[in-house]
Amino acid sequence: MAGAPAPSGGGGRVIIIKKKGKGHAAHHGGAWKVAYADFVTAMMAFFMVMWLMAQTDQQTRQQLSEYFRTGVFSGAPSVLNGGSGIQNKAYFDVVGQSSIQPETQAFERVAAAVRAAMQRSMAEDPALKKLAQQLKVSVTEEGLLIQILDGSGDDLLFDRSSSELKPRLEQLLAAIAPILGRLDNKIQVHGHTDAKPFPTGSNRSNWQLSFERADAARLVLERNGLQKGQVGGVFAHGSSALYNPKDPFAPENRRLAILAVRRGMETYAAQGVAAKPPAAKPAPPAPAAAPKPAAATTAD
Q1: Per-residue pLDDT, 299
Q2: CATH superfamily of the 103-271 domain
Q3: How many CB atoms sit inside 10 A of residue 130's CB?
Q4: Plot region of 293 (φ>0 → left; ψ -120 to 50 → alpha; else → beta)
Q5: Residues 151 and 193 sit within 8 Å (Cβ to Cβ)
């Protein structure tokens, strides 16, 4: 800035420059605290999810997966009105999942998934249509029953007297296996034949043939999605349990049956009989009646 003229009489001016001292830099804001808090929250949520996954079985994990896909807990018509979700318990029950996901509902869902898989397979390979039409899926007292019939006399499943599965049958079993693998129930594989006997003098029988076919199916299922140790048994029935008893030689009697057994029914299902209610205890014998006193007699 300009100052007063110089005292020496010179014509120049004295210029005085004033420098303002720089202040300290402003402190950083608190944005890093927000970011750090978000990080800690995310890590807490991550470890919470890991803990929940460690505490749940496969069936409950499937239910959680459906929830994140659909936004609704299975078996809960309403979370607000007495459903089996959160409102009536105030927490998600990861231990007592049977009250949320009854066994029958699980079987119904798997049955629907099997049918849907067959529809997709037929769309991808029209040659599977005839075989898929011979697939019978039902929920029974013993569990989820899947039957594959060798109908129409076309030898869809295997050649006559042969235990080798045809490629289309292997393809169908491979599609079913990962769906059954979602269940925690034991899986039984049953083989059946028609009543046509082997030629006289043959060392083979329908019992042996039905077992070989069922065991071959078991191997395909285990290779394509069943859990380790999930198979509870392979059973041969020969022609002792015909699908069409009115025609013992009918092609539909040649079949494979895959049963996801209800818990507690494994023994009965293996024997091929329905569960029996416990026998009623015999009623205790009635107490003997007290002898009547003899009638008094009077002298005439």
Answers
A1: 42
A2: OmpA-like domain (3.30.1330.60)
A3: 14
A4: beta
A5: no
Q: Report the candidate in 12, 11, 10, 14 with the shortest Cα–Cα distance to residue 2.
A: 14
Q: Please report, as a single letter, which amino acid is at residue 48.
A: M
Q: 204 near 224, Cβ under 8 Å?
A: no
Amino acid at residue number 107: F
Bridge partners of 149? 255
Distance CA 106, CA 267 (A): 21
Q: Average of pLDDT values for 138-144?
A: 90
- Is the whole model's pTM more than 0.85, yes or no? no
Whose CA is closest to 196, among 205, 183, 208? 205
d(CA 269, CA 241): 13
Query: What sign for the dihedral angle of Cα 291, 292, 298, 299?
Result: negative
Q: For 256, list phi and psi in degrees, rounded to 5.
A: -115, 140
pLDDT of residue 274: 47
Q: Would you mind telling me the total number of residues written for the chain in this entry?
A: 300
Degrees to nearest 5, angle at CA 142 with 136 and 144: 40
Question: What is the average pLDDT value for the chain, to the nearest integer?
Answer: 75
Contact of 185 with 137, CB cutoff 8 Å = no
Q: Report the largest interatomic distance among the alpha carbons of the chain, rounded to a whole angstrom.
A: 185
Cβ burial of 83 (10 Å; 0-12, 13-18, 19+) is: middle
DSSP 284: P
Instruction: Dump pLDDT digits (tens) for 78-107.
Output: 333 333 433 333 334 444 444 335 788 889
- Over 60: is that where the pLDDT of 17 sits? yes
Q: Which residues contact 149 (CB under 8 A, 6 or more apart)?
A: 134, 135, 136, 243, 251, 252, 254, 255
Residue 41 neighbours by CB under 8 Å, 6+ apart = none
Spell out the domain ranges in the chain: 32-99, 103-271
Extract the tokens encoding 6: 């110089």
